[in-house]
Design goal:
Chain lengths: ~500, ~425
């Protein structure tokens, strides 16, 4: 699989040895990796279909080193790709042949925990789960919980505004981050926000969160931590029709109940997960909802009763309620393992990520089924039903001629469908390189120009993570002067990828 | 002579802004103009009035979202949501009590541009956390779409966050989609009496750090001059110090959590329990800062809104009272300190800013006469790097500084 990236700068490549020597001055010892063999782990992220060794990998371990590396790159016109733990599913940290891959994996420390103010100050290379583990001894946790939380970094979570099962009730990364230390491409170190519940001035933290590493490099993060709910119980509800499951989701929300998590799996996903983890999932249903209620036990018991009644009213065919923590975890085990489980069904799969309005779930699933027939490929669906974030898994075999291309086309059509239904191209994995060229499906040239102007305010030379998110390169000075009219592309001479 | 352009639709807004760009003349963007006395005073010769853009373009209770035009009255939208047992989680502040302007005024656009949230913010987030997206006209005279209408979205930058709290300086918002939450079945406020500020701060910290899902915590010290407002007077304010902690949710849970919380707070005294109806009024009074109302004995005082780490609130407030002789009340568990200080040409800015900085917070002058607001920085001065970045953002959205020029920064000139 190939994707067109900005053409490597031959002048930079010719200076490779000199650049590596300069970077070694800033980050001594093993912090600079330049051998082909040692750079192999960095040639892709979790979107493994795309591979490209970087020019050099740099692994600083202080903010000052990050600042110096960025300043050097800025002064010398060198492109930089930031990387956390490399779990991006959209190629957000896909390297560039003429670029520095700036890894934050050494930034793994907890800088401070302030239980009284309910915040933790952590470094971006910590895994999401490690943040919760660091505060667990006082009964606290960090709410956003992407499925990859055991591996993904908290810095990467900021880059992608990650969510997870809990985001329905407790919000996304953007709702749980109070501040950060942040280095601009010029090497300037800024502090944004902190322990106060609200920031002053423009909401810079809000724009940095979800910016896919295009605006700067985060070196410290202040996150909000929450006291763990007293208890959590889950229901596992099966439906003979997908539409009934969709209706159940809407009715639960409509009844004023916001579950701690509400996830749906379709028949293919249920069968794959059951074969993988033996969670006791019903195999004769078309859709399965896992609904978790958390809070004081008296509240959870009452809400379980209400949700069960709604499910029955929506023609559920099976309903199991967890009666122990072990059972609750078992319900979730299949959902959490759905991706690897589906991976066993097929040599390859493509994991898509789009969001639709909750009420359009049945329509979206019907549309995906139709598209599956058109492309002659199977697609298993697992998704965050509570917030409409779909994760269709398109099964294909890369060894069969044209299957990969069909899978990619199928995936693009699913995202077009999401946009058509009032949704978006990405709910939590980001645009990266994967969905970059689909951006015009959702955003007009004028919309895109305003997005690019944000980029220009942070990185006027366009050196940070170029080739991601935007389908077209822009020169900031011209973008600032121009006036876009009638949706016409302003600079037809600028190369599109 | 100020010219008012009452626009009919988004195309009119584009036209008006393009004219302003061509003439290189700034414009003020207003809805009901209910917050025009907040911020640095502006001097634009043209006002773009968005109040006719007041339609609800989509309300989907099952989706928990509402899409409205920027000129829609907040009070109307809240009534509409109320009928479906839904609400804005962030409790938008009605500034009319504090400013002495007509009550019930204020538009959705103004609510978002100001980003002033009430007591529940400490648990549920502010306006920025619930704004999903919208349409706006930038200083290029172009309508652009920010965000989306779904709750999970990582498609480009989250521009809607930038618009919340930007006081109309980046773009004129014409339509917004906002996330909603169900209204709680009931709420209970626990009342502790007679605590000093530091002890009250500790009590609030304990409550907010519990697993009982406290949604608000506030403290009102004793005062000889402060207006109580009816709801607070019934509890004994301002003669007695009151520490208030709220829990909300389904009936059975609220009763249970309130009991457990009262037990937890026993070391601070025996808590009284106030039920839903009175509780709603209490938190509405705090949201709108009724104790410092324009019509109150402190009506001529300047009012600062200081945000700091919650545990720093009492130290900050106590020092401010000591150094200025003013009055404070605490919300957000101590993370929001409202200070009413005696009239002064500089509004005691140096003292307020010094204490806010020592606490790790920031201060905004919310109420003061125009000449006072013109003489000092109303919004928190920023570190040079952050200020420069903010200015670059402004210039990338409004290169000629047409929109609400000078509203947030005195040096806001092209």
């Amino acid at each position: 699989m190939t994707i067109k990236m900005p053409a490597p700068d031959e002048g930079i490549l010719a200076r490779r040895d000199e650049i590596i020597a300069a970077l070694r001055e800033i980050v001594p010892g093993e912090g600079v990796i330049d051998s082909e063999r040692e750079m192999m782990p960095y040639e892709s992220d979790a979107l493994t279909a795309y591979r490209q060794p970087p020019m050099v990998v740099v692994l600083p371990d202080t903010t000052e080193q990050v600042a110096q590396v960025l300043k050097y790159c800025y002064d010398n016109g060198i492109r930089v790709v930031p990387r956390g733990n490399g779990t991006s599913l959209s190629g957000g940290s896909f390297p560039l042949a003429d670029g520095v891959l700036l890894g934050l994996s050494k930034f793994k420390r907890v800088r401070e925990i302030d239980f009284d103010n309910r915040v933790a100050v952590v470094e971006p290379g910590m895994t999401n789960l490690a943040v919760s583990e660091a505060v667990a001894h006082e009964g606290f946790y960090y709410a956003p919980d992407p499925s990859s939380q055991i591996a993904c970094s908290i810095g990467g979570n900021i880059a992608e505004n990650s969510g997870g099962v809990h985001s329905l009730k407790y919000g996304l990364t953007t709702n749980n981050v109070l501040g950060c230390e942040f280095v601009l491409i010029t090497g300037e170190i800024l502090r944004i926000g902190g322990r106060a519940p609200e920031n002053d001035g423009y909401d810079l933290m809000g724009i940095i969160t979800g910016s896919e590493g295009l605006l700067g490099v985060v070196t410290e993060i202040t996150v909000r931590i929450l006291k763990k709910p007293e208890t959590a119980r889950a229901l596992m509800v099966g439906f003979a029709e997908v539409e009934a499951a969709g209706e159940c989701v809407a009715r639960i929300i409509g009844a004023g109940i916001i579950p701690g998590g509400m996830e749906m799996m379709d028949k293919d996903a249920i069968h794959a997960a059951e074969a993988f983890v033996k969670a006791g999932y019903p195999l004769d249903v078309e859709a399965l909802l896992i609904i978790e209620l958390d809070g004081p036990s008296i509240e959870v018991d009452e809400l379980i009763r209400r949700v069960e009644a709604i499910a029955l009213d929506c023609r559920s065919t099976t309903c199991q309620i967890s009666n122990s923590e072990q059972e609750r975890l078992l319900f979730w085990a299949g959902r959490k393992a759905a991706f690897p489980a589906v991976g066993r069904l097929s040599p390859d799969y493509l994991c898509m990520d789009g969001t639709i309005p909750r009420g359009k779930l049945p329509e979206a699933l019907a549309g995906i089924r139709e598209l599956g027939k058109k492309y002659g490929l199977r697609c298993a669906n697992v998704f965050h039903a509570g917030d409409g974030n779909l994760h269709p898994l398109i099964l294909y075999d890369a060894n069969v001629a044209d299957e990969m291309q069909r899978a990619e086309d199928f995936g693009a059509d699913i995202l077009r469908l999401c946009v058509k239904l009032g949704g978006v191209l990405s709910g939590e994995h980001g645009i990266g390189v994967e969905k970059r060229d689909l951006m015009p499906e959702m955003l007009s040239d004028i919309d895109l120009a305003h997005h690019q102007r944000i980029k220009c305010a942070f990185d006027a030379k366009g050196l940070l993570n170029p080739g991601k998110m935007f389908p077209t390169l822009h020169r900031c000075a011209e973008l600032g002067r121009m006036h876009v009219h009638g949706g016409k592309l302003p600079f037809p001479d600028i190369p599109r990828f | 002579m100020v010219q008012t352009l009452k626009v009919r639709d988004a195309a009119d807004v584009e036209g008006a802004i393009r004219e302003a760009i061509a003439a290189e003349q700034p414009v003020d963007i207003v809805g009901h103009a209910s917050k025009r006395d907040i911020g640095q005073p502006t001097e634009a010769a043209t006002v773009i009035d968005l109040s006719a853009l007041n339609a609800v373009t989509g309300y989907e209770p099952h989706e928990l979202i509402v899409t409205v035009q920027a000129g829609a009255p907040v009070s109307d939208v809240i009534s509409m949501l109320d009928a479906k047992n839904q609400q804005f989680a962030f409790e938008p502040m009605d500034t009319s009590v504090l400013l002495g302007t007509s009550s019930g005024a204020g538009t959705i656009g103004g609510m978002i541009a100001a980003g002033l949230a009430g007591s529940r913010r400490i648990r549920s987030g502010g306006v920025r956390d619930h704004l999903l997206g919208g349409k706006a006209v930038s200083g290029f005279g172009d309508t652009f779409v920010a965000g989306s209408r779904v709750v999970k979205n990582v498609t480009g930058y989250d521009i809607s966050k930038l618009l919340a709290g930007s006081w109309g300086t980046l773009a004129a918002l014409t339509e917004a989609t906002i996330k909603l939450v169900p209204k709680a079945e009931s709420q209970v406020t626990l009342v502790l009496r007679g605590l000093d500020d530091a002890t009250a701060n500790r009590a609030m910290t304990k409550a907010l750090g519990s697993s009982f899902d406290v949604s608000s915590a506030a403290h009102l010290p004793v005062s000889e001059t402060r207006a109580p407002g009816d709801a607070l007077a019934r509890l004994g304010a301002p003669v007695q110090a009151l520490t208030l902690v709220r829990v909300e949710g389904i009936d059975v849970s609220v009763a249970n959590r309130a009991r457990s919380l009262a037990e937890l707070l026993l070391p601070f005294g025996k808590a009284e329990s106030v039920d839903t109806e009175a509780s709603v009024e209490i938190w509405q009074a705090l949201r709108d800062v009724v104790p410092f109302a324009a019509t109150s004995p402190l009506g001529n005082h300047v009012v600062w809104r200081i945000v700091c780490p919650p545990t720093a609130g009492a130290v900050l407030g106590t020092a401010l009272k000591r150094d200025t002789g003013g009055e404070v009340i605490y919300d957000w568990g101590g993370g929001l300190v409202w200070a009413a200080l005696s009239p002064a040409a500089d509004a005691h800015a140096a003292t307020v800013r010094a204490h806010a900085a020592a606490a790790g917070g920031h201060a905004m002058l919310l109420r003061a006469p125009k000449e006072v607001r013109a003489a000092i920085d109303v919004f928190q001065p920023q570190a040079p790097g952050v200020a420069a970045l903010s200015r670059r953002i402004k210039e990338n959205f409004d290169p000629r500084h047409i929109l609400n020029r000078g509203r947030m920064r005195r040096d806001d000139l092209p």
